[in-house]
Write the C-alpha coordinates for this entry.
Amino acid sequence: MPILRRRRCAASAAPAPKPRPRSYFLVAGIALDDELERLRSLPVFADGPLAERRPELKVRRASRKPNRLGFAVPTEFRLSVTAYPGIRPGDALETLLHELVHLHVGRAREAHAWHGPTFKRVLARAMQEAYGVEIATPRSTLHGPYAEAIEATLRRNRKKTS
Protein backbone atom coordinates (compact mmCIF):
# COMPACT_ATOMS: atom_id res chain seq x y z
CA MET A 1 0.00 0.00 0.00
CA PRO A 2 1.49 3.42 -0.98
CA ILE A 3 2.37 5.90 1.72
CA LEU A 4 0.24 9.03 1.47
CA ARG A 5 1.72 12.33 2.46
CA ARG A 6 -0.34 14.97 4.14
CA ARG A 7 -0.48 18.38 2.57
CA ARG A 8 0.26 21.33 4.75
CA CYS A 9 -2.57 23.72 5.23
CA ALA A 10 -2.09 27.32 4.12
CA ALA A 11 -1.88 28.48 7.76
CA SER A 12 1.27 26.46 8.32
CA ALA A 13 3.00 27.66 5.15
CA ALA A 14 6.70 28.42 5.15
CA PRO A 15 7.73 31.51 7.09
CA ALA A 16 8.31 34.76 5.23
CA PRO A 17 11.81 35.03 3.79
CA LYS A 18 14.37 37.18 5.59
CA PRO A 19 14.65 40.74 4.32
CA ARG A 20 17.34 41.22 1.71
CA PRO A 21 20.35 43.43 2.47
CA ARG A 22 20.26 46.94 0.95
CA SER A 23 23.10 46.01 -1.42
CA TYR A 24 20.95 43.32 -3.06
CA PHE A 25 18.76 46.00 -4.69
CA LEU A 26 21.61 48.33 -5.71
CA VAL A 27 22.08 48.29 -9.50
CA ALA A 28 24.15 50.91 -11.35
CA GLY A 29 24.01 53.15 -8.29
CA ILE A 30 20.18 52.97 -8.15
CA ALA A 31 18.37 51.45 -5.16
CA LEU A 32 15.71 49.62 -7.17
CA ASP A 33 13.56 48.86 -4.12
CA ASP A 34 13.32 52.57 -3.28
CA GLU A 35 12.69 53.45 -6.93
CA LEU A 36 9.96 50.81 -7.13
CA GLU A 37 8.22 52.46 -4.17
CA ARG A 38 8.44 55.88 -5.84
CA LEU A 39 7.16 54.56 -9.15
CA ARG A 40 4.17 52.80 -7.55
CA SER A 41 2.86 56.20 -6.47
CA LEU A 42 2.76 57.64 -10.00
CA PRO A 43 -0.67 58.84 -11.18
CA VAL A 44 -0.54 56.41 -14.12
CA PHE A 45 -0.71 53.50 -11.64
CA ALA A 46 -3.31 55.04 -9.30
CA ASP A 47 -6.22 52.87 -10.47
CA GLY A 48 -4.40 49.54 -10.55
CA PRO A 49 -2.90 46.88 -8.33
CA LEU A 50 0.43 48.70 -7.86
CA ALA A 51 -1.26 51.42 -5.81
CA GLU A 52 -2.65 48.80 -3.44
CA ARG A 53 0.33 46.53 -2.83
CA ARG A 54 4.02 46.17 -3.50
CA PRO A 55 5.12 43.51 -5.98
CA GLU A 56 7.95 41.14 -5.17
CA LEU A 57 11.20 42.39 -6.71
CA LYS A 58 14.12 40.13 -7.53
CA VAL A 59 17.46 41.26 -8.86
CA ARG A 60 19.23 38.68 -10.96
CA ARG A 61 23.00 38.98 -11.47
CA ALA A 62 24.54 37.96 -14.78
CA SER A 63 28.18 37.77 -15.85
CA ARG A 64 27.33 39.27 -19.27
CA LYS A 65 24.46 41.18 -20.84
CA PRO A 66 21.53 38.78 -21.20
CA ASN A 67 18.91 38.65 -23.93
CA ARG A 68 16.19 39.15 -21.31
CA LEU A 69 16.83 42.20 -19.11
CA GLY A 70 13.80 41.64 -16.96
CA PHE A 71 10.43 39.98 -16.75
CA ALA A 72 7.14 40.28 -14.93
CA VAL A 73 4.75 37.58 -13.82
CA PRO A 74 1.38 39.31 -13.33
CA THR A 75 -0.33 36.18 -11.98
CA GLU A 76 2.25 36.03 -9.15
CA PHE A 77 2.60 39.82 -8.86
CA ARG A 78 6.37 39.73 -9.11
CA LEU A 79 9.07 41.12 -11.35
CA SER A 80 12.74 40.66 -11.96
CA VAL A 81 15.47 42.97 -13.21
CA THR A 82 18.83 41.64 -14.37
CA ALA A 83 22.05 43.42 -13.41
CA TYR A 84 25.02 42.82 -15.69
CA PRO A 85 28.48 44.32 -16.23
CA GLY A 86 28.21 47.74 -17.84
CA ILE A 87 24.54 48.33 -17.02
CA ARG A 88 23.78 52.05 -16.84
CA PRO A 89 21.27 53.73 -14.54
CA GLY A 90 19.00 54.40 -17.54
CA ASP A 91 19.03 50.72 -18.47
CA ALA A 92 18.01 49.65 -14.97
CA LEU A 93 15.33 52.34 -14.68
CA GLU A 94 13.84 51.56 -18.10
CA THR A 95 13.69 47.85 -17.30
CA LEU A 96 12.14 48.38 -13.87
CA LEU A 97 9.41 50.69 -15.19
CA HIS A 98 8.77 48.46 -18.23
CA GLU A 99 8.13 45.49 -15.94
CA LEU A 100 5.94 47.54 -13.59
CA VAL A 101 3.79 48.51 -16.57
CA HIS A 102 3.37 44.81 -17.33
CA LEU A 103 2.07 44.26 -13.80
CA HIS A 104 -0.30 47.20 -14.19
CA VAL A 105 -1.64 46.37 -17.66
CA GLY A 106 -1.39 42.58 -17.67
CA ARG A 107 -2.24 40.74 -20.85
CA ALA A 108 -4.47 43.05 -22.89
CA ARG A 109 -7.24 41.72 -25.12
CA GLU A 110 -5.80 43.12 -28.31
CA ALA A 111 -3.24 42.30 -30.97
CA HIS A 112 0.20 41.86 -29.42
CA ALA A 113 -1.33 41.28 -26.00
CA TRP A 114 1.87 41.90 -23.99
CA HIS A 115 3.37 44.81 -25.94
CA GLY A 116 0.39 46.18 -27.84
CA PRO A 117 -1.07 49.68 -28.07
CA THR A 118 -2.33 49.74 -24.47
CA PHE A 119 1.06 48.72 -23.09
CA LYS A 120 2.90 51.26 -25.24
CA ARG A 121 0.52 54.07 -24.28
CA VAL A 122 0.82 53.35 -20.55
CA LEU A 123 4.61 52.96 -20.78
CA ALA A 124 4.96 56.33 -22.57
CA ARG A 125 2.83 58.05 -19.93
CA ALA A 126 4.75 56.37 -17.09
CA MET A 127 8.11 57.41 -18.60
CA GLN A 128 6.91 61.00 -18.85
CA GLU A 129 5.60 61.04 -15.27
CA ALA A 130 8.61 59.24 -13.77
CA TYR A 131 11.55 60.72 -15.67
CA GLY A 132 10.21 63.55 -17.81
CA VAL A 133 11.01 61.52 -20.92
CA GLU A 134 8.90 62.08 -24.01
CA ILE A 135 9.97 60.35 -27.20
CA ALA A 136 8.11 59.17 -30.26
CA THR A 137 6.53 55.83 -29.41
CA PRO A 138 9.05 53.19 -30.50
CA ARG A 139 7.81 50.70 -33.08
CA SER A 140 9.28 47.82 -31.11
CA THR A 141 9.43 47.25 -27.39
CA LEU A 142 13.05 46.20 -27.40
CA HIS A 143 15.20 47.73 -24.72
CA GLY A 144 16.98 50.95 -25.49
CA PRO A 145 15.07 54.02 -26.67
CA TYR A 146 13.77 55.02 -23.24
CA ALA A 147 17.10 54.11 -21.59
CA GLU A 148 18.91 56.50 -23.94
CA ALA A 149 16.43 59.28 -23.17
CA ILE A 150 16.74 58.66 -19.41
CA GLU A 151 20.54 58.73 -19.69
CA ALA A 152 20.36 62.06 -21.56
CA THR A 153 18.09 63.47 -18.83
CA LEU A 154 20.47 62.25 -16.11
CA ARG A 155 23.43 63.88 -17.92
CA ARG A 156 21.55 67.20 -18.18
CA ASN A 157 20.66 67.06 -14.49
CA ARG A 158 24.29 66.35 -13.54
CA LYS A 159 25.45 69.38 -15.56
CA LYS A 160 22.91 71.62 -13.83
CA THR A 161 24.08 70.56 -10.37
CA SER A 162 27.82 70.80 -11.08
Q: What stands out?
A: The radius of gyration is 18 Å. The mean pLDDT is 89. The helical segments are 32-40, 49-52, 89-105, 117-131, 145-161.
